[in-house]
Amino acid sequence: MSTFTARTAVALAVLLPLLPTPAVAQEHQDEAEEGEDDIVVQATRSGRRVQDEAIRVEVIGREEIEEKLMMTPGNVSMLVAETPGVRVQVTSPALGSSNIRMQGMSGRYTQLLSDGLPLYGGQPSSIGLLQIPPTDLGQVEVIKGSASALYGPSALGGVINLVSRRPKPEAEAEFLINASTRDGQDATGYASGPLGASWSYSLTGGYHRQTRKDLDKDGWIDMPGYDRWTVRPRLFWVGDDGANALVTFGATREDRAGGTLGDRVAPDGQPFPITQDSRRLDAGLVAEFPVEGLGKIGIRASAMTQRHRQLFGSSAETDRQNTYFAETSIAGEAGPTSWLVGGAFQADVYRSRTFPVFDYSYTVPALFGQVEQEVTDELLLAGSARADFHSDYGTRLSPRVSALYRPGPWTIRASFGKGFYAPTPFVDEIEAAGLSRLEPVDALKAETAKTASLDFGYAKGPLEASLTLFASDIENAVQVEEVDADSVRLVNAAGTTRTRGGEVMLRYRWHAFSVTGSYVFVDASEPVPSGIGRRTTPRTPRHTAGLVGMWEEHGKGRVGIEAYYTGRQQLDDNPYRARSRPYFELGALGEITLGKVSLFVNAENILDIRQTKYDRLLLPQRAPDGSWTVEAWAPTDGFVVNGGVRVRFGGH
User: What is the number of other CB atoms lying within 10 angstroms of the CB of residue 135?
Assistant: First the structure.
């Protein structure tokens, strides 16, 4: 037995008695009570219902998307943040940027897709998550753990697939206006309808802005200001024989500002403005065509170009990132066996006008395959593998095996996967502070990981419950190492980065009421940079929990209350404290529907938890990587109320 397998078995055995007793299947919905169609998952490529997937997939449906739309109309961060085991981590308090961490793994390992396409880049920037409005999403699919067997090196830690909202047979539109007590405003619009017998369209657009705020009056901006436009038209085609296609285009323009406010200065007596201007264009195609006697041929292709102009004090940086992707596959069935094979090509190109020494160009042709076998009505086995022929890191094989067993109301899943990640200069610290203090990257090794999970589920009547145990081992994880007071370098960790943990979820529905409770335990450790020994992974809370109560009735409105607990976190290079304080966040949402018009109000962080109430955000002196702030371990915006109106046109 390998070291990983043995340690995982021990970890699972230890965790089982520590966590509340079992139950599972958080994707199971009581169709009789909900009256909804079966949810088909796109991210796994199998075309199965979510409850029939061998790989555990958590699906956030349209109802929950609409709820979060009223909380944060400008981005999808809150939508994914409240999924157990998924943490939206602020990477730069100065710019407000964030990434998505899966089960304690670094955010750079999470692949963000739109309808299965990398429209936000092979390695999405931390700002990218904050530039995606949820207005036109139909569902969100979350796969935790290595998904490199499905999507290549960028999916080492997991995948979040944003599935677009499909037009209805009749034309419809909606418009939303929102404003907050922190002087933020949002305006979004959505329209869709048929274009003849086979074609339909959707069009989404939005304008979002936030005024810069210095809440603790120290001269440093705690809430960065931004001004953003987005537009995304889509075309849909459905053929008579089951063929279908989606064509999408997107454009985003944002100007974001943080750092020192006005004529105020940093602790060194000099002003330090931080700005980032982003421009992104993308286009994509997804198509599927049945071939008689053979199966279904799938085609996916996309292109994305993104330009950044950044200012870190007196250091200006300009760069461009391009991602090109193409894939073709064929899928079929033979009795109880379903299969899929295909080939893909992806190119990620980065060019810095200011620091060309950090330029890179990765080209990755790949072959992949997937087989699923229905052994019995209750047992499904699945295996997938992908061979990536990386231009810089050679040939890499990423396998994944999964099993699903469904006796009665119970669901049991087991999964094991391996994958790799091609390093770039943009770890969290460098993205937050820029490239000016980073030494040239010298021969980094590819980061590799093994992940495993064991999932128990129960769903019957109004009750759903789940218990998931997970583990990961990462070799050669890239870390930032201090060279001197004015420079840093990237190195591979001298040892294994380990994560062990568990998730518990319990949900009860009674007519229009639902109550959901969750708890996540994470034990994560990593080698100490520039030294011998290990440490708890910084900013990874060992305990988090949530409780949400919701009343919702179509045509009338909804009322919701939520409470979230975040435990202590180990902090790195923070002169004010070595460990963070634990804290609770309370929120409340109310919506009333009057025909086609909905009025809503939402209160976030009612207890006014704010990191600057306990310590300064500013460092006494600039860090070696160039940053002027400590890491964010708690909210920086405090108590916020937002409200607005949503108007619908057409439809039923």
Answer: 24
pLDDT at residue 528 is higher than 60: yes
| pLDDT at residue number 11 | 37
Q: pLDDT tier at 113 (50, 70, 90 boundaries)?
A: very high
Cβ count near 530 (within 10 Å):
12
Count how many domains the chain has: 1
Rg value, the chain, Cα: 24
Dihedrals φ, ψ of 123, to 5°?
-125, 95
Determine the Cα–Cα distance for residues 506 and 274; give it in Å rounded to an integer.
43
Q: Which two tokens stand for residue 72?
A: 């944060």
Q: Exposure of 187 by Cβ count < 10 A (0-12 exposed, 13-18 middle, 19+ buried)?
A: middle
Q: How confident is the model at residue 124 (pLDDT cuts 50, 70, 90)?
A: low
> Which amino acid belongs to residue 555?
G
- Other residues' Cβ atoms within 10 Å of the Cβ of residue 649: 11
d(CA 578, CA 528): 15
- Which residues form the domain of 11? 3-650
Q: How many whole angstroms separate alpha carbon 280 and alpha carbon 305?
A: 6
Residue 91, judged by CB atoms within 10 A of its CB (0-12, 13-18, 19+), counts as buried
- Phi and psi torsions of 511, nearest 5°: 55, -120
* 8 A C-beta contact, residue 53 and residue 21: no
Task: State the pLDDT confidence band at 652, using cuts at 50, 70 and 90.
Answer: low
Q: What letter would DSSP give residue 261?
A: -
pLDDT tens digits along 258-313:
999 989 999 999 999 999 999 999 999 999 999 988 889 999 999 999 999 999 99
At residue 75, the pLDDT reads 86
Please list, in sequence order, all residues whose beta carbon lies within 8 angstroms of the beta carbon of residue 418, skipping any fewer than 6 positions away: 146, 148, 149, 397, 398, 399, 400, 448, 449, 450, 451
53 neighbors 370 (Cβ within 8 angstroms):
no
Any idea what the CATH number is for the domain that residue 515 is in?
A: 2.40.170.20
